């Protein structure tokens, strides 16, 4: 099901691993630096440098964090970064400094808040605008700034307003793109699953044809099978049953060991209840090794290898019942082996 309320994401504009996305990040950071370098001419280096670092980090956060909407911790940081940087640098502005040095920090602040809109945090962006406006108006009220200077510096209002209108226009198109992308992903997943199932079926049919084809041809021709051929049919039937009941246990070594044990008269049963799900691959190999060792030692009786259901302490058991006594081998999810008689 497609979530129709998902916000417009930056990764819808640029692929998450696309070089274009990182180029955009570099350009955005360079723009921040170009605007804020002017503060070094009018404010102490500590204040100008602090504002620059704060804004650069906020720009990186708003662009790079992959989750949409932007997480609240990141949202709060980005929304507060601009007003804080303005409060750090604006006290050193003078009304006589001219327009060239007037509130340059407001421009990158507007860009940060506009990006916040694109990351699905419209209300937070406007709270950031309100914070920036509060800082500007407060500084203007307690300094010699002219009122029109403060009005000209309220650029975040125009920028965030324009991006908000843009979002309201493109939102329906963006939702359609999301639905198309989700549908394409579902179709690709279905096709991949069908291809994998077809490949597995072809593999199994090929293996069956190699081992059972000659015998089936003789049976179809009405030729009476010899005792050795009937024994081969019995062993083959048991192997095919193993592949259906315990596919995770069937390997070349275990199949060969089971065939040899059955040829000696041992009753071999393989069962798989799904316990290998979630355990390391080496634990599965340890279970198979324990089963192969037990089958190699068995000369009579029965050997039952069972993979237990998920969630049990023991991932698998190997029970060997022989005239001389029974032996039980248990392997836990950590790969530890316990043998009891």
Automatic annotation (TrEMBL):
Keyword Secreted: no
Keywords: Membrane, Transmembrane, Transmembrane helix
The keyword Transmembrane appears for this protein: yes
Domain of life: Bacteria
Bilayer-crossing regions: 21-40, 46-67, 74-93, 99-118, 125-145, 151-171
Protein name: Signal transduction histidine kinase
Organism whose genome encodes this protein: Nocardia alba
Organism ancestry: Bacteria, Bacillati, Actinomycetota, Actinomycetes, Mycobacteriales
